[in-house]
Prior knowledge:
Layout lengths: L2 H24 L5 H8 L4 H18 L3 E5 L5 E5 L1 H7 L10 H13 L2 E2 H8 L3 H10 L3 E6 L2 E6 L1 H6 L6 H15 L2 H4 L3
Antiparallel strand pairs: 1-2, 3-5, 4-5
Helix pairs in contact: 1-3, 5-7
Amino acid sequence: xxxxxxxxxxxxxxxxxxxxxxxxxxxxxxxxxxxxxxxxxxxxxxxxxxxxxxxxxxxxxxxxxxxxxxxxxxxxxxxxxxxxxxxxxxxxxxxxxxxxxxxxxxxxxxxxxxxxxxxxxxxxxxxxxxxxxxxxxxxxxxxxxxxxxxxxxxxxxxxxxxxxxxxxxxxxxxxxxxxxxxxxxxxxx
Length: 189
């Protein structure tokens, strides 16, 4: 093997390590443009080839982590679903505290829902929760007269491993809420 080929191979492995680091530290799906900027290259195609090669290496390794390519072309490094239940309790800090999480569950189940309705049910603290949920990208708020219309985002679906199809997502949420006994909180009239 020539010296040039060895250097090129080391460079590609180095770039794949940066992709892995970016996906790990982000903790959310990243698009190819973002990954290319981390690699400091302009070629989206080359970036995509490297991410897919890294994906294949994870798949062949048979370990607990996987890289998935989402429908919209973004990539995410995550724990394989079969490991989540058993190790979830070991996570240092949850993304959300109980208050914002309850507000999010109400929005997710009732979406699209006016902000005024969320505040009516969840109380004035919901304003702070809604700001936090928007900040982390889990909900989207569109102006609707004097209030806002709230709905979850693709980031929400990706984070909670839910479908992007609203009808399927609602069915998945209903099953989760029943499993954990929280249906009364989201089915408030």
